[in-house]
Amino acid sequence: MRRKETYRIILTGILSALAAILMTISIPIPFAPSFLKFDIAELPALFAGFFLGPLSGCMVVVIKNLLHLAFNGTTTAFVGEAMNIVGSLCFVLPAALIYRKIHTRRGAIISMTTATLFASVAAIFLNAYIAFPMYSRLYGLPLEAIIRMGSAVNPLVNGYWSLMILSVLPFNLLKHGITSLVTYILYKRTGNALRRMTGLDEEDVTRKEAVKNEG
Q1: Pairing between strand 27-28 and 37-38?
Q2: Measured between alpha carbons, how far is 50 from 177 in angstroms, rounded to an integer?
Q3: Which domain holds residue 140?
Q4: Residue 202: is its pLDDT beyond 60?
Q5: Which terminus of the chain is less hemmed in, N or C, by CB atoms within 10 Å?
Q6: How far, in Å, are 31, 49, 135, 141, 198 from residue 43 at the CA level?
Q7: Within-domain flag for 215
Q8: Is residue 161 part of a domain?
Q9: pLDDT in tens, 11-41
Q10: How many domains in the chain?
Q11: 155-200 pLDDT per residue, tens
Q12: Does a structural domain hold residue 66?
């Protein structure tokens, strides 16, 4: 059991490091303002949430951002990192919790679909009421200027809430949707390999996680 716990801690650390690396690889999306960059850094956290349990998935999200801060610093006075943590948790935590209850392939699809929709809708309000106003004050950039940035790449954007609905929402649906698809493709084969290498059993881990949370 102690050996399995060691493997669990090591795997969480490896997935956190991988997530931090993926966080540095981002690309702009044609229909969204240039400051919204696409990456799949949530993939290792989602994998950890499925294989090791919700708590480990959340730990990967937090450690990923701490590593990013340690090596790259912040250009947003920690606003971007805080929003990344909250937004990622809105995706990883519901997916991991649902998958723990419905531990099947169908459950994985339901969990990732539900989490994608929940995190994408949550992103609208997080950006509308917290992130964008804070960026506006931080950079001395009027919200109207941010709206114009959205209109420049998406002519349908003509106001603050149309920016949220027509840029922020589809951006997050695409981001979480692709992360979910890649996880679904890779998870079974990679999970089987990790079980053979470490002796960890994902069902035992998720049950242990549930007991720990109930205690």
Answers
A1: antiparallel
A2: 16
A3: 2-208
A4: no
A5: C
A6: 23, 10, 26, 32, 20
A7: no
A8: yes
A9: 999 999 999 999 999 888 888 887 788 999 9
A10: 1
A11: 999 999 999 999 999 999 999 999 999 999 998 888 777 776 666 6
A12: yes
More confident residue, 56 or 78: 56
Q: At what angle do helices 43-51 and 202-214 cross, to 10 degrees?
A: 80
Q: Helix H segments across 52-168?
A: 54-72, 79-101, 105-126, 132-139, 143-153, 160-163
The DSSP secondary structure of 32-53, one letter per residue, reads: S-TT-EE--TTHHHHHHHHHT-
Are 119 and 176 within 8 A, CB to CB?
yes
**How many residues does this entry show for the chain?**
215
With beta carbons less than 8 A apart as the criterion, state whether 57 and 9 touch.
no
Provide the CATH number for the domain around residue 105.
1.10.1760.20
Q: Measuring CA to CA, how many Å separate 138 from each of 1, 70, 133, 176?
A: 49, 21, 9, 27
Amino acid sitting at position 133: P
User: What are the Cα distances from residue 52, in Å, to 39, 49, 138, 203?
Assistant: 23, 6, 38, 9
